[in-house]
Each structure stands twice: as structure tokens, then as C-alpha cells.
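Standup notes
- DV: blocked on the single-chain target, sequence here:
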Amino acid sequence: MLASVETRSVSPVFVGRAEELDTLNDALARAAAGEPQALLIGGEAGVGKTRLVEEFATAACRRGAVVALGGCVEIGADGLPFAPFSTALRALRRELPAEVAAAAAGQEDELTRLLPELGETGSGRHDEEGMARLFELTARLLERVAADRTVVVALEDLHWADASTRHLLAYLLRTLRSGRLVVLATYRADDIHRRHPLRPLLAELDRLRTVRRIELARFTRTEVGRQLAGILAAEPDPGQVEEIFERSDGNAFFVEELAVCATEGCGTGLTDSLRDLLLVRVEGMPESAQRIARIVAEGGSTVEYRLLAAVAGLAEDDLIEALRAAVNANILIATPAGDGYRFRHSLVREAVGDDLLPGERSRLNRRYAEALEADPTLVPADERVMRLASYWYHAHAPAKALPAVLDASVEARRRHAYSEQLRLLERAMELWDTTPETVRDELRPIDYTEVYPPCGCDPATTPLRYLDLMAEAAVAGRLSGERERALKITKRALHLLEEEDDPLRAAWFWTQRAVMVQNLARGDGWKELATAQELVRGLPPSEVHAEVLTQVAGWSMLRAPGPQALSDAERAVEYARMVGARETEMNARLTLGTLMVDAGDVEAGLAVMSEVKDQARQDGIASVAGRAHVNLPSELEAVGRSREAVGVLEEGTAYARRYGLLNTEAWVWSNLSDSLYSLGRWDEAVEAAEKALRRGQSAKPQGAAAMKLAQVALGRGDVAEAARQRDAAERYFGTHDPMPQQSLPLAALTVGVAAAEGRLLDVRAEVRRSLDGGVPPGTQRYVWPLLLGAAIAEAEARALPAAGQGRTEALGVLFEAARRLTTVAPVWLAHERWVRAELARAEGRDTVDTWSEVVTAFESVERPYDLARVRHRLAAALLGAGGGDDERDRATELLRLAHAVAGHLGARPLGDAVALLAQRARLPLTRVPEQRPADPAEALGLTSRERDVLRLVAAGRTNRQIAEELFISPKTASVHVSNILGKLGVSGRGEAAATAHRLGLFAADALDPAR
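- DV (later): unblocked, structure below
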């Protein structure tokens, strides 16, 4: 029997797409110059996206680039988490093993979630930054690999991508700033319906100016003719070109299929639709090849040869013959690695898959699952668990599917693919009731869950509960950003718990709900936390109890600091230690240390926080260490130790970058901006704040950064920019969850802007509003600047008639607030004196002594801008007192110092005020350089030793006395004297002494013989 003749349906000639190729080649050139490029290629199925990418990849390789291809893998309706990135990174590692190893050094335990070949996955608690951490490390890995060579990462079939892949791609395209890197992705435009999950991502990427989008159009009639000429290896008949063009409407893949049909005699009019045309091609194969095609269609995007053999159950020769027929018919092709098969085009696979009967589909999935269970080595290890779960689920076998789906959810969690974990857990909950109870009783929490701590039970012997799944799903939803779904899950769980006596589990769900309510801007979360606290009240210590107390203390630290919050933090630490909840204990101690500092126990509180930072770093608990690098320097700044804070923060930026703690890094940059501002390093403060805005994944650190930009702008006299940044900060913070650390600095900025614009009544209204509820303990760092701004505004407006009405009441509010505030640190004692001085100025009773005390207080703290401002005030007081030359000299020096600082900082309002005061007082701000008198001894050419000898000669000493005093010999002294006489042009010692006296070479006491 003769072998089948292979059908050629692909044109060996690349047709058209000149403009699109130019765009891709331009991107490659830009990347080679060090400018990362991002492109999206869209088009309907069969239009030629893959062929364009292949052509570009070939050209890129010829130009020395390294190309890594990765495709989104579809198994039934399920995408494998991070599949295209794993494939692309694996390809990069094959091409550049040493470079990838160097780029991943130190982060293998995280990056192995995408590239298992790097080693073992690190352990540790999952947190909100876990996925972002993985994304940041992946971006950095690619940047490092592409630092010295051009790298192209191509991801195909994005319409099949899982949510985690979409999130990672969006992160890369938003954040890549360096490296010779091209990232491109393809997707089917005709598949992106209104509810398709890719649609929001495309809309988001359209708003990025750094992402270019290429839409592939269908071929023109001329291009179809050229394609047919390549397929047929001859010039086609014009009538045939016209007919195929009309039938295919210019779709490249359908042109190929119609050309083959025309060549093989099936004609183009035999079918009612192009889908049927694809099936006609399949039905033209031998029955064994058709059967293999149906098996491959249900197996996934690619099916390994050994797995296919196990499912097909054919003798090896029969299987190979069937595969040869499918390959020769151009229905199946071998994978690039040569270890499996896939359809030449996904449209054919979909047509074959859609033609399967329901029972046939579930039967094939069962056979795949059974084969994989019998021999797990049939598929790559990193795909095994996910594929087995999919096969059993689509086989409609709940008893097998539930454990497999739960195993897959654990794998998704391990890889930080929280969206996929949530989907799988929801699938497990769907299967729960249909799974036999005997199977469910064998499942254990220890094998599948980790978020709900075992309280009063042995997780190794206690059966898994439906509520355990709900707990995992709630956390997975929160970590993946699917907070609405997570919130609904907690609501359902709490409804179920109404019928059970399980206060600890109910309390745990209420704490989760509190976090999500805050994240969704539905409130501050206190109602939920208070409910949880009430549920655990009086219960024995447990991990849940410790966690509830820790969250309550943390909530109070930010919103209602005071003795109760301190007590809650102490109990949280105690309970966490009792039950061995190490991470919870560290978080509670950080909160406790913060509250101790705010309560005035500064050194002890800072010591607690520093110890937690060091322990968390040593133990590798990145989330706690990151939080410590935010909170510890914040408290150092709160007590005026800005230089120490900068040291911890600079260490924190490196730590956050290393571990991919994006939100932590944003907070660190924001706090660094705060401390740099205090130290008078304003340009660096602006740079740090801008980095916080770029790096932040949540709104609050961005709001804090915007406030610092507003403060710098206000200090530099750009009132409009200060108002704009202040409004931006308020938008970032929102109104659902007010905190003193946000509302009070915002109020101070509002006061500053209003005062700069001369709106004194608005200043007073803002102060009344901010202080209406009293001053929370521990918030002095935020209240003193607010009081200061208002006091300065009152003092500046003292001479205005319109300011007189209501002044007494306004000043009384400020006096009373200042009286109640603590001054636990020198910096706030200095502010207290400054506020009182400004209030005295507002009443016209400030004196030189008043301002001298303020200047003295600020000279002991490192606040150059504040010191310059109060020096200006002291100078004004000195000049206003009408003193003599000494006072004017002192005022001049103060103004010069203040003017120098204002110039260095770009603080225009301060500089203008200093210059105006100096002008009115007719004081020079620049020092006239003194003419240094020429040194007569130097002019005469006397050496240092000769000066010493001449001094003694002028004092009447003999050569022997000179020798004794200078520890030289008499002969040497004689030589020096002779040289001196020659240089002075005199004949004796007496004349030399007279010349020294006349020129004033030595002070009188230097010539005293008794000396």
C-alpha cells in the first residue's frame, strides 16, 4: 500500500503584512537601543497572527535577538495558570542558562512558582502582596536578562489566558522601564465579546501610551491571489481566485482550506458553512485518523504522544499510521519539541470538539484522567495536577473530581495564582453536595486548607468542612482582587454559621469581612471587627482570638489611638505568644511599639519595633519585615529623629525591591519623602514622593506622597500646585475610612493654601472642623503643624480690619488645643514654643526674648527650613525693638542664614520675606569680603622657623637661649639669625627687633620674656 500524499496548504511565501512587520521591526530596533517595547496583535481567528509572529521571530533571531515563545494553554475551558510565561521563561532558560540563573539569584524560591526548574517554592503565609511580589520579581528577571541583549517574549492566544496571566501581563506592560525587551501578545479579536475577561485588560492597555496595538485585517483580493500562488506553486486561475476570495472573505486560514478542497476535488460549494468545510477535511481522513483527531481535540491545546497512546488504546503501529494520516492531511502537526501533537489551527480543533456528542466528551475526559492517574509521568510535572482536575471535572465524576480539584487549588495557591485558586474552590463547592459522603469524610483540612487556623481540633483527623472551603475561597478572592465575590462568600458563610455554635469561626469570617469592607471603600471595618471581638470575648486563647485582638489594636492605632488600643495590643502579643502564632505576635508587637512611642514611652517603643524588624528579616517573614520598615521610621520621624529614619527607609527600599513588596515600597518612598523634607532635602523629597506614586498599588501611600508634594509646592510658593496635590491626596484617601494621619495633614494643607490666598475665614473654619472632636492621643505630630499654620495666618492678618471679628475666639481655640497637646520630643517642644510665639505675635505682644527661645529650641533639632523661618521672625523682632548696632548685626546674620536656606530649598515666599525685611532695614544680605592684609613675614620671605627665631630675637634672647627654647644647636640658631638679617636688610639684632616691632609681626604678649 502506498503512503498518502502530504497535502500542502500553507504558502511558503509570506504574503502582505508589510506595514505590520515594519511596526514590529521598529519596536525591535527601539528595544535594541534600550527602550522596552510592548505590542498587542489582534485579529479574527485564522487571519494570520501566528504566521506574522513566526516571520517576525525569524527576522529577530537573524538580528541577534533571543526569542522566547509562550502560548496560553487551554484544557477544556480551563487555562493553566501562568502557562505562557512559564513556557517563555523555560525557553529563555534553555537559550541563556547562565544569564537566567544570575538574574534569578536570591529569588529562586519565589520565581519557581513560574519556573519550577529553579528549585523549591518558599514557605510562608500568603498575603496581599504575594502576587504583586511575584510579578515584580518576574519583571526584574526579564529586565536583567535583557540588560545586555535584545529579548523578545511572545505570548500567543491571550483570549485563553487565565486571570493570573492577564494580571501579570498587565503589570509587565505598565512597569517595564529598562532593558532591551520586546513583549508582544496575540489574541482573537472576534472572541472578545462584552463579557469576555480579556476585554477590561485591553481597555486598560489602550490607555497606556507605551503599548502599541496592531489589528490584522483580512487579505485583499490581490493578496489572496499571491497566497494561492504560493500554495499551488503555480499562478492560479483568475476565476478560482475570485471564487475563493468571495468564499473566504480574505481570511488566510480559510483561503488555505478552500485551496486544498479545490485541489482535492471536494469543491467550495459542498458545505453550508466554513465550519462544515473544516469537518469535511477531517471526514476525508481514514476512520482511525478521525478518531485520533477527536481524542486530541478533547485533550487540550497540546497532547503528549505517550498520553495519547494510553487514551487511544491502539497498537503502536496503528496509532502511528493514524497520526501520519492526520499530519499528512495538515489537520495535526507535531509540537516543536517533538513529544506530542496539536491541531494545525485551533479553529479545526474547535470544529472537531464541537462535533463531539455529550457522552463522548465525558468518556474521553474520563479516559484521559484514568490514564494520567495510572501514570503521572505522561504529562509535565507542573501541569499534572491542573490537567487531572480538569479531566475529572469534565468527566462528570464528582467522587474523583472533588479531591482532584482541591489538589489543583493548593497548586494554584502555591503559585500565587489566586484567581485560579478561587475558581477551583468555587468548583469544589459546586461538587460538594454531589460527592459521596464517604469520599468527603476522607478529606482533611491539613491537605487542602491553610487560612483558617485549627482551633480545638486536630486538622489531621478532622474531616474537611464546607466552611473550610469557603474560608479558603474568601481569602483567595481577597488576594486576587475579586473582593466582591469574596464578600459574598463571607456573607454566605456567616449565614450558615447562624445555625452553628462556632464563635471562633464566625469571628474569623467577620475579620475577613472587615478587611474587604475597607478595601471596597464600604466603611472603616469597625462594625465587623467589633462583632468579632465580642464573639471571642471570654474564650480561651487561640490563634483566631490573637488575630482578632491584633486587628482591633491595629485598627485603633490608626483611627482611635489611646490607652484602650495599647491594652488591646498588649493582650494580642500575650495571646499570640501563648498559642505560638509567631507572625501574628510580630505584627502585634509592631503595633504595640508604635502605640508606646505615641504614648510617650519613646525609647522602649522604638526598641520593640527595631527588634521586630531584625527578627522578621532574620526569619524571612517578608510581610512583617516590610511593615517594620514602614512603621519604625515613621515613629522615628514622629519624634524628630529624621536622619535615623532615612537610614532605616533607605534600607527598606532595598528590602522591598528585593522581595517585590510593591505596596510596602510605595509606603517606604512616601515616608522617605517625609523625612527628607524635614532635613531640608526637598528635591530628593519630591523624587521620593514621585516614586511612591509610581510604585503604589493601593491608594493610601499615593495619597501620602501627594500630600508631601503639596507641602513642598506650598513651601516654594506654587499655591495652585499645592491645592491640586492636596485635592489629589484627598481623592486617594476617600471619605469612607477617615484616619487622623490623613485628615489632620490634609487640614494643615488646607489651612496653608487658604492662608496663602488670604482666606482667613476659611482657615478658621478648617481649624474648627478639624479640632471639633478633640485631639486623639498620639497625634501631636499632625496637630502641631495644623496649629502652627493657623497661628501664622492669624499673626499675618493682625493688621487687617476684617480679621478682628472672631479673632479672640479663634485664638482661644488655638491656645486651648496647644495647651492639651503633648511635647514628648524636642521637635514638638520647639513647635509648641513656635505656636505660642505666633499667637503672641497675633496679639502684638511677642518680644525678642520670645523668638530667641524659639530659635534656641530649633537649633537643637535638625529642621533647617523651620529654623530659617524662626530666624526670620527673630530678626524682625530685633529690628522692631529699635536696638543699636549689635542688634542690627545680629539681625543681619540671622537674615543671611535664613536667605541662604531659602535659596537652597527654592522656598520663594521665605526668600521674598527675608529680602523685603532686609531691604526695609537697609541690611546687606551678602557679606562684603574683607581684604586680607598681606603677611609682612611672608612678603619678606621668612620661613616658619625663621619667624620663630625672629620672635625670640625681638624678645632679646641670645643665640644659646634661642637654641634651648627651639631645641636646636646654637650654631643653627646663628645661621638662622644671619639669614634673617639678610632678608630684613639690617646690620644687627637691634635693628631686626625694631623692624619686627614696626611691621607688627608679633603680638606684644608673644614678646614677653616671662612667657
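- Follow-up: The first strand starts at residue 37 and ends at 43.
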